[in-house]
Design a protein that fits this description.
Layout (H helix, E strand, L loop, with lengths): L9 E3 L2 E3 L6 E5 L7 H13 L4 E5 L3 H13 L4 E4 L4 H9 L4 E4 L7 H14 L2 E7 L5 H7 L4 H17 L5 E6 L3 H14 L5 E2 L7 H17 L5 E2 L7 H14 L8 E4 L10 H12 L7 E5 L5 H7 L2 E5 L3 E6 L2 E7 L3 H22 L1
Parallel strand pairs: 3-4, 3-10, 4-5, 5-6, 6-7, 7-8, 9-10, 11-12, 12-13
Antiparallel strand pairs: 1-2, 13-14, 14-15
């Protein structure tokens, strides 16, 4: 059982972060914020995938104007992502953003931060202080000889002092780098000295494959150590895949589970059916089904029957045929060409049964 670090609790809209609250999954839209209809559509798609908070880039006043309609139509709380211009942060809060993200390395000095804090205080808006290794303050970079973990921690602590001097504590932090271990070390050190909630991520992690691997390693280490209250998996690709990857990390650690978990064999020379095709299609068809079960797709007689028996439902294939299992028992033998449809019918049967049980409670 993972013992989480005890942190303060803040709220972003109706989502509570920190303390004993579940670790929150976030993502970010990848469309020009001025395109309101497309942005809202992507937010709704993210919401349907399990995303609980969405961040949108606010790069100018036109984006701020669009925020009003985006906030109005969004099914989840919206965070405005701000760089360089403190006035955009203030205007975004006035447009309805319930959270903002600022970067201490490029937002300006103490007086600009005070203006942001004053407006946030008026609306009780949560602020993420997002330290990024790629945009640290020049003085800190010079002092540490580069964007080291200690440099990131110093930047975060300097900003924290300003916020506490102004008596504003509705804040959370992130300390991100594209270097996985630098990120881990920065979060570890900061978590030793501060009890504010932490948003985890590996910045500029890469394409879907490489980014998922790097994120799983970095975020996974920190979560296992009890560090982290929200996460975002940053991928160069479809943001829905960020959400899927985030839940996969949480599920692998036994922290949170959403939807069906598919286990499938890696295949080898013993495999006599197209397990790759079947497993990929199962993954595609179950997307969006919020059912807490494990489905096994196995391809040979070595581990297949045993793994399938351990799952809630599964198939173990042989030469042209397979066995359909449910709760450890063989239900029937099926032809290879029928495996996928029969497995999906069994999953649907479970979904209907679970729905009926909930209705009776």
């Amino acid at each position: 059982m993972i013992e989480r670090r005890n942190t303060r609790v803040i709220s972003i809209g109706d989502v509570r972060i920190g303390g004993e609250n579940p670790i929150v999954v976030q993502s970010m839209t990848k469309i020009d914020t001025k395109e309101v209809k497309a942005t809202v559509s992507q937010i709704k798609e993210l919401h349907n995938s399990g995303c609980e908070i969405v961040r949108v880039a606010v790069k100018d006043m036109d984006a701020v104007s669009a925020m009003k309609n985006i906030v109005k139509e969004s099914p989840v709380p919206i965070i405005a992502d701000i760089h360089f211009d403190y006035r955009l942060a203030i205007a975004s809060m006035e447009a309805g953003a319930v959270g903002i993200r600022i970067n201490p390395g490029n937002i300006g000095g103490k007086e600009r931060l005070k203006k942001i804090i004053d407006r946030a205080r008026a609306g009780d808006v949560a602020i993420r202080i997002g330290v990024n290794s790629g945009s640290l303050e020049k003085e800190i970079l010079k002092k540490h000889g580069g964007p080291t973990p200690d440099a990131m921690v110093e930047s975060a602590l300097d900003c924290l002092k300003i916020f506490e001097d102004f008596n504003y504590t509705n804040i959370k932090f992130s300390l991100k780098s594209a270097n996985v271990m630098d990120t881990v070390l920065a979060y570890r050190e900061f978590s030793r000295v501060c009890d504010y909630p932490l948003h985890l991520g590996i910045t500029e992690a890469g394409t879907v494959f490489r980014g998922a691997v790097k994120s799983a390693v970095g975020i996974g280490i920190l979560l296992y150590e009890g560090i982290g209250d929200t996460i975002r998996v940053s991928l160069t690709g479809d943001p829905v895949k960020e959400v899927m990857c985030a839940y996969t990390i949480l599920s692998a650690l036994g922290i949170r589970k959403r939807g069906i978990e598919v286990i499938s064999c890696p295949t080898c020379g013993r495999t006599e059916i197209d397990i790759v095709k079947i497993a990929d299609e199962v993954e595609r068809r179950i997307r969006g089904i919020d059912l807490d079960i494990t489905v096994a797709v196995m391809g040979c007689e070595v581990n297949g029957p045993g793994e399938a028996r351990e799952a809630d439902v599964g198939i173990a294939g042989g030469k042209g045929v397979g066995l359909l299992f449910r709760n450890g028992e063989v239900i029937k033998k099926v032809k290879e060409e029928d495996m996928l449809d029969i497995l999906m019918k069994e999953i649907e049967k479970i979904r209907v049964e679970e729905k009926s049980k909930k209705a009776q409670i």
